[in-house]
């Protein structure tokens, strides 16, 4: 027969590794102890964690016990578990991405012609972000590469298919994206006639 200190320690370990609520019956069998005694020890542990203001608490769930986090720490847990936002796309990158999305498959020269500026570095940056991919080669002179958007593009902007893209007249309603939940969030305007100061990737 184990003393209370040993059994409390064992109960803590079992709750930690078990994941699911630990049934009193199962704990009693492991410790070869009476179910009533085990429940009293678990309730005692529950009080101890609460009294010392621990970030972990013990919750009773339908005759079983499990570790949970202290409710007042929710704000800190959310910060820890929320992915850090990735750098937003530059104006140049958004221009190129929009052109590819609406004209795909499209060649670099076609993109350059629409923008009036070379787009190679921007395309490379979009490919590194897995928003754009090579879709084969054109049948035109020199058989240049064709570019199209990816499944990752759809995911980031909250679309299920290219058919859900806004009407071509609604470019001003296209939205920027971040990596927080894979959805478009902040409104921005895309001006295809504007000058790009830099070719950000």
From TrEMBL:
Quote the Pfam families the UniProt record gives: SMC_ScpB (PF04079)
Query: What SUPFAM superfamilies is this protein classified in?
Result: Winged helix' DNA-binding domain
GO BP: any one term = chromosome separation
User: Which keywords are on file for this protein?
Assistant: Cell cycle, Cell division, Chromosome partition, Cytoplasm
Gene3D superfamilies linked: Winged helix-like DNA-binding domain superfamily/Winged helix DNA-binding domain
What's this protein's name?
SMC-Scp complex subunit ScpB
**Underlying gene:** scpB
């Amino acid at each position: 027969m184990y003393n209370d200190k040993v059994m409390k320690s064992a109960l803590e370990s079992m709750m930690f590794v078990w994941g699911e609520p630990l049934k009193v019956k199962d704990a009693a069998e492991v410790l070869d102890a009476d179910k009533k005694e085990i429940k009293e020890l678990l309730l005692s542990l529950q009080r101890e964690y609460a009294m010392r203001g621990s970030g972990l608490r013990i919750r009773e769930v339908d005759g079983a016990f499990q570790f949970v986090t202290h409710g007042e720490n929710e704000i800190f847990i959310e910060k820890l578990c929320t992915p850090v936002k990735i750098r937003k796309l530059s104006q140049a990158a958004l221009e190129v991405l929009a052109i590819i999305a609406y004209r795909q498959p499209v060649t670099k020269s076609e993109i350059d012609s629409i923008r009036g500026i070379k787009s190679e570095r921007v395309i490379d940056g979009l490919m590194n972000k897995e928003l754009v991919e090579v879709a084969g080669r054109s049948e035109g002179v020199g058989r240049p590469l064709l570019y199209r958007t990816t499944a990752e593009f759809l995911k980031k902007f909250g679309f299920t298919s290219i058919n859900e893209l806004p009407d071509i007249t609604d470019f001003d309603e296209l939205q920027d994206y971040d990596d927080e939940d894979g959805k478009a969030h902040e409104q921005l305007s895309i001006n295809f006639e504007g000058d790009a100061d830099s070719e950000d990737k």
